[in-house]
Amino acid sequence: MNIDIKGLANYTENMACFKDSFISVLHEYNGSGKDKEMLAFVACCFMTPNAKSDKKDVEHLLSIIREQTTSVWEYIDREMYMVDFFDPSMRTLSFANDMDVLKVFMLLHEVILTTQTIERSVQISYDYNGNYEDFFINIFNSAGVKDIFYADRSDPQERIWTFLRLMVRKSPVDLGLWGNWITPADLQMPINENFVRAAYKMKLYDNIDVTPASRRRITDAFKTYFPDDPVKGFFAIHGFIYEIS
Known about the structure:
By secondary structure, the chain is an all-alpha fold.
């Protein structure tokens, strides 16, 4: 099978291909950069293989927030979420099956108190630890929700790298909210079982294991096509799965 990797990536990297995902909600939300950063983080934490369901959940979250404020950042900063979780007369989030959602809001409140934004927290962590993952892993381990970035048959860090992709890349799909202290060349592929199987069929990878090593090797494979932006390969795989297969 001969596949035009670059052509497929360019064809798929548009919002028409992601109109049924929570990413479309992020683009349509008329908030500031720090508002969108917070909303994207929550969305990535709880994303599932069902993109349409995820979109409805994020829309529901925004509808709850808008009953109190137009700003997601302010909603978290002023701890308005406490009302929605503890007042029986208020609606709760549709995807709040346990206390993990509340814990995420509480963690983001701590981020605001210390550095104001997730970007600043990740930058400080990177300057100290030399990687982009430790900030996320450490805060969730300390909060007792260490599995927040895990999902069945997914790379343990799929949610981390999805969030970072949205924040760093400037594209028709990604938001590109963060500064140039981190570049698209620094990113790794967010993968799951479907993506690894697609990479195998595309002859980009010789295994179907879903591991951090798989993520690194698939990222390296796409550097052949996109040296300065290997995660653009995400759109080639997405297109292969949903447009070709």
